[in-house]
């Protein structure tokens, strides 16, 4: 007869990490948020350079793309914890978090697809559908209730990211 003793230290470490995340994420998001647009432009330039140099050094360009997308997904995750001064109602806070998480899941799906891991297509689909629901909800709320749930930058970011992720997703489908 086996007696299994469960070690609670892993669970305690998980709780400590989640408490740390909840305490430090808004501060990190407040630091990242004003600089995010410039960081996105810089990362986009790096990805374009990597795509241009793909013919000469394929491995280096793939590494640059993977690092850039990973960096963006981490930034979007922490930016989802920002505290918006204009929108303090619970629905707007939920939309801000959901937008950041959808962006993160979409980018992680791209990473999974580039590396040919299982689940990349599902992650991209979930991220894109979530972004479409967020955009639809934002536009309906703005049209009928005259309430701005998200900033214009967030809406533009979601539209552009949805188009880019959709293009990568369609390209991945064509290659199979």
Q: How would you characterize the overall build of this protein?
A:
This protein has six helices and no strands. It is mostly helical and 176 residues long. The protein has one domain (25-175). Helix 3 (58-79) packs antiparallel against helix 4 (90-114), helix 4 (90-114) packs parallel to helix 6 (152-175) and helix 5 packs antiparallel against helix 6 (152-175). It starts with 8 loop residues before the first helix and ends with a helix. The mean pLDDT is 78.
Order of helices and strands: HHHHHH
The fraction of residues in strands falls at: under 5%
Number of helices: 6
Backbone structural class? mainly alpha
Shape: globular
Helix content: over 70%
- C-alpha termini separation: 50 Å
For the largest beta-sheet, the strand count, sense and barrel status come to: none
Low-confidence runs of at least 5 consecutive residues: none
